[in-house]
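hiii so my PI (J.) wants the whole complex modelled not just the main chain, which honestly fair. so below is everything: two entries, each one labled with what it is. i double checked the lines twice but i was tired so who knows lol
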Amino acid sequence: MRYMLRRRINNTIFLGLSVMAALFGAFWLLFIIVSILKNGFQAINWDLFFKDPAPPGFSGGGLRSAFVGQLIITVLASAIGVPIGILGGTFLSEYGRGTRLSRIVSDIADIMISLPSIVVGTFVYTVVVRPMGHFSGYAGAISLAIIMIPVILRSTEEVLRLVPWDLREAAFALGAPYHRVIMDVVYRSAAGGLFTGVILGIARVATETAPLLFTSFNNPFFSLNPNEAMPSLTVTIYQYAMGPYDDWHRLAWGASFVIVVFVLIVNISGRLFIRRRFGR
Amino acid sequence: MKRDGFVERVAFALTFFGAIFVVLILVLMFVVLLYASLDAIEHFGVFRFVFSVKWDPSKSIFGGAGPIYGTVITTIIALIIAVPVSLGIAVFISQLCPEFLKDIFSYSIEMLATIPSIVYGMWGLFSLAPIMRNYIEPFLQRVFLPIPGLRLLFEGTPLGIDLLTSGVVLSIMIIPFIGSIARDNFELVPKELIESAYAMGATRWEVIRDVIIPYSKLGIFGGIIIATGRALGETMAVAFVLGNDHSIHLSLLKSSTTISVTLANEFTEADFNLYSSSLFYLAFILLFLSFLLLGLAKFIVKRRFSR
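here's the output for the full assembly
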């Protein structure tokens, strides 16, 4: 009986620990969310979106330039990254399906998804910023695109693989060449999933900071020219949070709030969509 | 028909290029970073760079031991906290949690993974660091300072900007990774195995310890390595709460730096060749380490699922 009792006690202890671990995880999430809500919400006003930063030491001002810069960099990055990623993913799931090459590329893409993003920043600095002689929105966009491509490549591959092979065969039987089958059958039936993958990929890089530090750098002024240093929301948060002024901290919290809300909305809707469409 | 053949070839070429692009970039990254660090490699060699602590730009002396040490220690702290906690979370979600809470818990843990690292960093600086400084670190000191060996790890004035706080922030960032990979692996365990263990009279904990965890250990191990890769390369979250100190201290309550934090802080300040070359050298080391780890994880996970 002592033995049974010991087993039962062990059971209670370890299951209790596991419940505590879950609560611990939930606690951090709550802690972070509450911090951001509490500090960020009071920084949200029209000025945040429609005014440019005030000079250091002056109060007021907003982050219009950073929002616009972030948008431009992200759009440029998507313009480079999305097509390459989708094309590559198409190769892995269609022309190269089952080949050794496509397995290797898949593995390498998986590794690249997790490589430190700051290393990408140093790389782009060397091959783009140095030759050009100055920081630029383009360089920032290129570094984000490099991070985005493997993400979109893999999600495209996964999504296209879900399209039943029979569908393709039916189209082949009608005499359609492969590229037509891909365009009209494969892409069309996987459109929702492709779209979701792309959105999640964009959301992922839209919050990157490290690769932008030495590529698009920063710029306190409003700028629409990607050929010069460009402010981004994330680098601005870094700069402002590290800075000495309370007003800067307030703006940084406001920007964090906006980013977190953006990411949460994108991720939740993306996941819900995938779940509804493909089950689990 | 002829036109179709041409378009077909173009389509093939384009998609092929898209696929090969990833590989090209990776190779190029290695080559470029290696080339950019040649100066420093020639100057300091491998051993002298990796094991020398002295980092003094004004005297053109660069040793990478400080950032490498910081990178390794913060990663180890993160793993020590994150591994048991995320396994506990995975056990809870997959085995204990009432059905209606399952999704909520899964989602909230995964939400932790989507919060941008810059936000983690800011939160770490303004919300976590004061708590560490005022409550947790003094508490740890009260507990550990009387113990002879361990006191070395907790000496010094608690500032909240140190190795320990960085490790904690990193652990929170990797908990969702290990947690969700472990959960997925737990769910792959065949129901028959679990049920037969229960039929033998095993308690829940015994089923988890003797059936579920052994069955999924390779997958979990792969997940832990991927998370290690993340922690090694994480920049922004750590940049806020680690200070930027190249010297090496045994105490966890001292400022330090990591490879990525050094890059973030000093890259744009490196105004002469040897300085920037040394930074590239660090970047190359980081790339190399991460690639090795992630490749290993990939290999392990592959073996797990191709059985």
